[in-house]
Write a structure and sequence with these properties.
The chain is of the alpha+beta class. Helix content is 43%, strand content 23%. Helix 2 packs antiparallel against helix 4.
């Protein structure tokens, strides 16, 4: 492989830790937005319009559609509000859910209905936080590996260009096997 092409690929590889870092920042913002709506929003009751539970845990798109009657007399409808797969079964038979609403927020409705001792939004915040931490760990791990790779290329050059200048006739791979 051409040394300049390998160095170009090694530099482009920096996009991988940047992608993971961006994902980590996004998940941190989601956790913060969920918390902000939960803490500063207005408690309300929401009518469940539709709830979908997927059959596969590995590929899911579970959601709930809600109509919230606001305290000021208005109505807010949220279509296909995504939910983690584990939260849907306990909520399936409910016709109304307790929610917190903060109009104008990036996440205007959070489900505060308790599943056991924990509100659903707390589970969503934990999931987003854990996803953020895992993405940050991946960014650091890949970043360290790519930094080491680029440093090695800068100091020593392409390993394919170093070493043997001519083939070794006594190398075991060149020996004929006789039966």
């Amino acid at each position: 492989m051409n040394g300049s092409l390998l160095q170009w690929v090694a530099r482009i590889a920096w996009l991988v830790p940047l992608l993971f870092f961006g994902l980590s920042v996004h998940q941190g913002k989601v956790a913060y937005d969920l918390h902000a709506t939960k803490v500063t929003g207005t408690p309300a009751s929401a009518e469940v319009l539709e709830m979908k539970k997927g059959n596969r845990q590995d590929v899911t798109y579970d959601y709930v559609s809600l109509r919230v009657d606001l305290p000021d007399g208005g109505t807010l409808t949220r279509e296909k509000l995504s939910l983690p797969h584990g939260l849907v079964p306990p909520l399936l038979d409910r016709e109304t859910l307790q929610v917190t609403v903060k109009e104008g927020a990036s996440i205007p409705v959070v489900i505060t209905e308790k599943i056991g001792p924990t509100p659903a939004v707390d589970t969503q915040m934990r999931i987003a936080g854990i996803n953020g931490l895992m993405s940050l760990g991946a960014a650091l791990l890949f970043g360290f590996g790519i930094w080491f790779w680029n440093r090695s290329l800068r100091r020593n050059g392409d390993p394919a260009d170093r070493g043997v200048s001519e083939s070794d006739p006594d190398h075991p791979a060149r020996q004929m096997v006789r039966s």
